[in-house]
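Researcher: I'd like a candidate sequence for this fold, 281 residues long. If you have to choose between options at a position, lean toward the conservative one.
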């Protein structure tokens, strides 16, 4: 039995060493990445089966580990960056990607691009080319510190004064894109988004939204008096239409809202989407 205990201790120590590049060496990091500690603890428990006093020390150490881990975990610092609109800016392009836990993107910020995000990992780029403001937001949460995976939340506010082309992709767990109060000229969301909530306002002209490639659930919210062409192709499991809008369906193309309007949303949903929920609000 002592051999088994020794093996568990060695495996636990090796696992802890392999995690040191991902976690701060502090109680919080140790408690969060607890399974290597549990291996070491079980190994020592087995190894000390003939010593009740040592086992009491092990139980005490386990309790203290949780207490100190909760009491002395470093606070989460929220960073904020603002980018003013420069020159004669007439439109904007925003790309948001890479390993984000939960993202809220909305157009409710007058005059600036603003970002609230935890920690400092990743990169934010902002540039101005002729009449277009380009904005790139790339964050990689899994190499960051002091926050469990899946708990990363970012808020990106874009100015509502100009129309935006928005691209959201690559590993976002949950994203809400709210353009109910501002102009959206084009949206593209794909590549492994777990849940995407797309809130759209009244369009000016034809606004195309492309959503595809491995999205688990897509929820669309559109004003009730807005014309929508929802085109569904390629491995979309289910489509729900809520809110009792008038619509017709032909060859996986849904026509919703007033047919005579020249301004409408053209939403293309394809390739590996589990479920689409369309809500007329």
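Model: Candidate sequence:
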């Amino acid at each position: 039995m002592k051999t088994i205990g020794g093996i568990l201790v060695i495996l636990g120590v090796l696992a802890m060493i392999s995690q040191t590049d991902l976690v701060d060496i502090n109680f919080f990091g140790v408690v969060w990445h607890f399974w290597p500690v549990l291996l070491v603890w079980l190994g020592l428990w087995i190894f000390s089966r003939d010593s009740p006093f040592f086992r009491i020390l092990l139980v005490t150490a386990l309790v203290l580990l949780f207490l100190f881990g909760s009491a002395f975990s470093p606070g989460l610092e929220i960073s904020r960056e603002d980018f003013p609109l420069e020159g004669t800016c007439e439109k904007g392009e925003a790309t948001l990607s890479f390993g984000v836990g939960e993202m809220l993107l909305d157009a409710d910020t007058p005059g600036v691009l603003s970002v609230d995000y935890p920690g400092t990992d990743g990169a934010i780029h902002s540039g101005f080319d002729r009449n277009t403001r380009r904005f790139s937001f790339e964050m990689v949460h899994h190499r960051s510190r002091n926050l469990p995976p899946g708990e990363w939340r970012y808020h990106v506010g874009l100015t509502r004064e100009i129309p935006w082309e928005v691209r959201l992709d690559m590993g976002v767990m949950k994203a809400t894109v709210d353009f109910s109060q501002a102009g959206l000229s084009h949206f593209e969301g794909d590549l492994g988004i777990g849940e995407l909530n797309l809130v759209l306002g009244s369009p000016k002209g034809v606004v195309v939204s492309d959503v595809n490639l491995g999205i688990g659930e897509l929820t669309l919210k559109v004003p009730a008096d807005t014309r929508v062409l929802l085109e569904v192709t390629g491995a979309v499991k289910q489509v729900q239409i809520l809110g009792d809008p008038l619509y017709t369906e032909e060859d996986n193309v849904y026509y919703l809202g007033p047919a005579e309007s020249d301004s409408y949303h053209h939403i293309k949903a394809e390739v590996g989407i589990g479920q689409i929920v369309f809500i007329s609000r």
